[in-house]
Amino acid sequence: MIEFRAVTKRFEDGTIAVDELDLTVEAGTITVFVGPSGCGKTTSLRMVNRMIDPTSGTILVDGKDVLTVDPPTLRRGIGYVIQQAGLFPHRTVLDNVATVPLLSGWDRRKARTRAAELLEIVGLDPAFGKRYPAQLSGGQQQRVGVARALAADPPVLLMDEPFSAVDPVVREDLQNELLRLQAELDKTIVFVTHDIDEALKLGERVAVFQTGGHLAQYARPTELLAAPANDFVASFVGRDRGYRTLTFLHADVPVHPITTAKLGQRITVTDWTLVVDDANRPKGWLSGVDGEVEISEQDLISGGSLYDGSTLRGALDAALSSPSALGVVVDDAGAVTGVVKADDVIKALAKARAAGEVPK
Amino acid sequence: MGDWLFDPAHWSGTTGIPVRLLEHLGYTLLTLLIAAVIAIPLGAFVGHTGKGGFLVVGLSNVLRALPTTAVLILVVLWAGLGDFPVYVALVLLAIPPIMAGTYAGIRAVDPVTVDAARGVGMRESGVLLNVEIPNALPLIYGGFRGAALQVVATATIAAYTGAGGLGRLVFDGLALQEFGQMLAGAVLVALLAVLVDLGFAGLQRLTVSPGLRPVGTGGKR
Amino acid sequence: MTWIFENWERFWEVTEVHLRLSVVPVVIGFLLSIPLGWVASRSNTARAILFPLANILFTIPSIALIVITPVLIGVKILDEINVVVPLVIYTVALMVRSVADALSAVPGHVTAAANAMGFRPLRRFLTVDFPLALPVTIAGLRVATVSNISMVSVGALVGLGGYGQLFTEGYQTDHTDKVLAGLIGTIVLAALADGLLLLIGRLLTPWTRAGR
Q1: A92/B121 Cβ within 8 A
Q2: C-alpha to C-alpha distances, A178 to A74, A99, A351, B166, nearest whole angstrom
Q3: Is A154 in contact with B120 (CB distance < 8 Å)?
């Protein structure tokens, strides 16, 4: 557990980065600090491991005032992941991960064994251990960064915009990986981002910071979307927050059957037809006006997003982004099981609202 | 030049070419050692703390402007003939490039890397010794090798005040109007400089982490 | 210091010679290094030839180059050109790298934009690339100028002029004041030249201080 008690940070030039922050980060949760640049979210994070010391106030980590602990000792007990990973370019991946165990006095062999384990935990082939950071992609470097932070098995993990320098596809992978890791490891994680979508996706609790270092609202994502505390939070959470609320609803949407065909087949198309590959995975659509065709790759209209049965947001997006207005539903193997319609999603939402599942 | 250089008589005895080469190499290596012991900690400290950068740059510039001949002569006039004035003059010559290279190298280490080093719990000494200096090594070597080239070339003037080294061939040749001997001296100095640089290039390859080598072919714009 | 005031005329005379012998090679060497540096920044082959060559030229001791030059170009040992030629060589050796590095460091998107707007190569070089390369180039020029001013003195070891004459005369007559006078003259001259180039650089590149 991390407690901020009336914490203020005033820099030498007089700017107030953090203003009277009171906040408790519960043990075993991911808590996200989000806000525009200059709102004090990173400063707040960096005060936890004393990369910055507060001007006034107290920060307790598991009941202990951090100002009473010598900074290097404190930091060895707190995982730290930063943007662009900050790996040591002159050390191999394995030695990067082994850094904290070695600093804490483990013997080299034990530290390296532990580092190799961690590479696997974060989803990297142990063969990467011998490489240098410059030989890895941005996403891989960031995984190594996470492994390095976890090496000494610290109860607390601080993550400062760790995924903002990688491309959106890799970012989503890393976010899912973090959620998977957290389900296993149960750490107390403080995660800083300026991306509200990332905050809502990862955070069990989200603290929205406002320019000038004020904490504007500290709540669960659903509450934040349903009842923003003030205009700033409302505008920061965004206009389409009704749409975002769908992210947190898991309701059944009826799945309708769909006609499918394979490439090379000769058929007469009368309605929207989904073309699939041999494993029944979607490849694209044929529109109803095509008439009799021998299906080839260039006839296909590319499809929209796929719905994997997770949240209402996914279902609605699949339907809205599909050229046929039919959202393709796939199973875990990526094979087509049917389609969903936007109308059904709206009905499911109404049902959930009636059942009191949507926060007001 | 060939006649003088390949005359066996010039390759033996206490004033032969091998002795002069070794003297020259000795001046060079000891000078570099002394200069490195002074300049690397100074440059590293200033680079690490970020304080006194103007001092390093200013001191480098003043020392660079210092004519080695004048320093050599002054120290000879004060302390008498011998190797001591040679070392004073050459060390003052070698300090600026080594100090500037070290300073620039430390400053050029990615601040994200340094932040991460502190964040994982390294102490300041650890940040400097285990992260900043290893990452600054390519630039430190750059300054050091530059200094080495200058010292090898300049050690020649030690002979003006009667000390040894390959400069003897140049000054003796000048006194005797023996062009071959002068040219032989110049060529041997240049050759020695290339060999010394190759040696340090090898040392650099052995001691700089492979992780710091340029990735890919570099290419051009 | 008293020597300087008691022998002001002599001091001024060697200062003039020293200035001439150091500035002329810097100017010639700088002008030569611009096209060479440009070629080195454009072609890897040229770079692979020019850079090692520059390194080797740099390793030849100045005193050796000064005594060899008259034999090679057929002039008397006491001709001032014997200092000028070696210093031109050192200046070029130093500056080729500076100019090439400076030109290579001009951001690709800037040159691409200039090409897209229809600059021809020479005009682009004169109005875009070279001005943007000035800060690094001038930094190199400052180093070359200061080391030239310091190196001219070597010429005195074979009897040429400049402050170096005060060193050799001081050495032969055991006259520390005279050596010190030359030393001070050299440092003052170097500092003045360095400051002047710094100032010129600032005036020529006002954009480097914009937005700070």
Answers
A1: no
A2: 24, 21, 32, 66
A3: no
The answer to whether position C47 is within a domain reads: yes
> With a cut of 70, which residues of chain C have pLDDT below it?
1, 211-212
pLDDT: is A297 or B173 the higher one?
B173
How far is Cα of residue B40 from the mean position of the Cα atoms in its chain? 12
- What's residue C64's pLDDT? 82
Residue B219 has pLDDT above 60, yes or no: no
Provide the 10 A C-beta neighbour count for residue A103: 21
Please name the CATH architecture into which domain B2-7+14-208 falls. Answer: Orthogonal Bundle (1.10)
- What average pLDDT does the segment A17-42 reach? 93
Domain assignment present for C98: yes
**For residue B205, how far is the Cα from the chain centroid?**
18
Question: Residues 9..38 of C with a Cβ closer than 8 Å to B: which?
Answer: none
The reported pLDDT for the residue numbered B218 is: 34
**Tokens at A145, concatenated:** 């960064």
What distance in Å separates residue B98's CA from the closest CA in chain A? 21
Predicted pLDDT of residue C33: 95
pLDDT at A247 over 50: yes
Domains of chain A: 2-245 (3.40.50.300), 260-354 (3.10.580.10)
- List pLDDT tens digits, range B83-141: 999 999 999 999 999 999 999 999 999 999 999 999 999 999 999 999 999 999 999 99
Residues on chain B bordering chain C, Cβ-to-Cβ distance under 8 angstroms: 61-62, 64-71, 73-74, 76-78, 149, 152-154, 156-157, 160-161, 167, 170-171, 173-174, 179, 182-183, 185-186, 189-190, 193-194, 197, 220-221
Interface of A with B (CB under 8 A): 49, 51, 71-77, 80, 82-92, 99-100, 103-104, 132-135, 148-149
State in Å, rounded, how far the first CA of chain B is from the last one.
45
- Residue B127 CA to residue A75 CA, distance in Å, equals 14
Whether C211 maps to a domain, the answer reads no
CB C91 within 8 A of CB C143: no
Residue C145 belongs to what domain range? 2-205
pLDDT in tens, A288-298: 766 777 888 87
Is residue B176 classed as helix, strand or coil in its secondary structure?
Answer: helix
pLDDT of B20 over the 60 cut: yes
Distances (CA, A) of A39 to A43, A45, B112, C27: 9, 12, 21, 54
* Structural domains of chain C, count: 1
Residue pointed to by tokens 């008259």: C70
Q: What is the CATH number of the domain that holds C148?
A: 1.10.3720.10
Mean pLDDT, all residues of chain B: 88
Nearest Cα residue in chain B from C70: B179
Q: Do A91 and B209 touch (CB under 8 A)?
A: yes
Q: Which pLDDT score is estimated for B168?
A: 92
Chains contacting C with at least 3 CB pairs below 8 Å? B
Sort A197 into a burial class: Cβ within 10 Å, 0-12 / 13-18 / 19+. Answer: middle
Mean pLDDT of A77-83: 91
Is residue C64 within 8 angstroms of chain B, CB to CB? yes
Using a CB-CB cut-off of 8 Å, the residues of chain C touching B185 are 64
If pLDDT is split at 50, 70 and 90, which confidence band does A5 have? very high
- Max CA separation in chain A (angstroms): 79
Contacts of A168 (CB under 8 A, 6+ apart): none
Query: What is the chain A residue with the closest CA to B114?
Result: A86
Evaluate whether residue C19 is within a structural domain.
yes
User: Tens digits of per-residue pLDDT, C30-78?
Assistant: 999 999 999 998 888 999 999 988 888 877 888 888 888 888 888 887 7
Domain boundaries, chain B: 2-7+14-208
3-state secondary structure at position A22:
strand
